[in-house]
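Table S2 (text version). Query chain:
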Amino acid sequence: MAETLKEESGMAPFSLDGRVAVVTGGATGIGLTIGRALAAAGARVILSSRSRERGEAAAGLLKEEGLDARFMPCDVTSPDEVNGLVERITEDYGRLDAMVTCAGRLVVKPALETTPEELDELLGVHVRGAYACAQAAARAMIARGEGGKILFITSILAELAVPNQSAYIAAKGGIVAMSRAMAVEWGPHGIQVNALGPQLTRTPLTEGLYANPEKMAEVISRTPAGRAGEPEDVAGAAVFLCSPASDYLTGQHIIVDGGRSAGC
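Corresponding C-alpha cell output:
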C-alpha cells in the first residue's frame, strides 16, 4: 500500500506533495509551526482552532508566505464538530492524509489543589479531543483505502514527571497509551499512529515559564543541547512522521528534548 502511494504520486520519501493535512490547535505555537512546515514540504494544510480570529490570521500568514493553507474552525471537545471538520475536508479535497492533534490546555497546580473540573477540562481537550480527531480521521482514511498518518503532539512530561502538573501529565500519558493501541488496530489499514513529545517549548501557554529565570536555568542545566525548545525544533520531526519516510514507524512516542531525557 505504501509503495503504491509513492509510485502513484512520484513522491520523494520526505515530500508531502499532493497530500492533505489538518492541524488542530493550529492557530498558534507548535501547531502553527508544524502547519507551516507541512505546507513547506508540499502539503495542503488546514489549520483548525476554536478561535476564528486567530485561525484566519494564522492561515493568512502562511498564504502570505506562499504556502497552501486555510482555516477551518473546530472545538475538539465536540465530537460533532470534529466529525464535521473531517467531513468538510474530505468533501473539499477528496482525501485526508494526515491528522495532527495539537490543541491543548495547561494547569500548573499541586495535585492536592487540582479540582475535578480542571482535571475534566484537561482530559476533555487532550484525551477525548485527540481521541475524537483520531477516530474521525481513521474512518476517512479507511474508507478511502490508502492509509494515512495520525500524529499526537504530547510532551516530555508523559515520560518524566515534575511537580504541580499532575493533571497535564495524566492527560499526555493517556495520549501516548492510546496512540499505541490505535497503531495496533489501524496498522492493517496502512495507518501509522505516533506521538511526538517536546521538551519545554516556547508557546503562548509557556511564556510564563520562559519569563522565570530560575526555571529556565534549571531546564537548560539539564539539557545537553544547552537551551530550551522552540516550535521549529518540533516541526522537522512532525514532517518526517507525516511523510512516506515513516511508513514503517508506528506506535512510537518520539521525544524532542535536546537530550534531556537521556540524562538523569
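Notes on Table S2: The mean pLDDT is 93. The first helix runs from residue 2 to 9.
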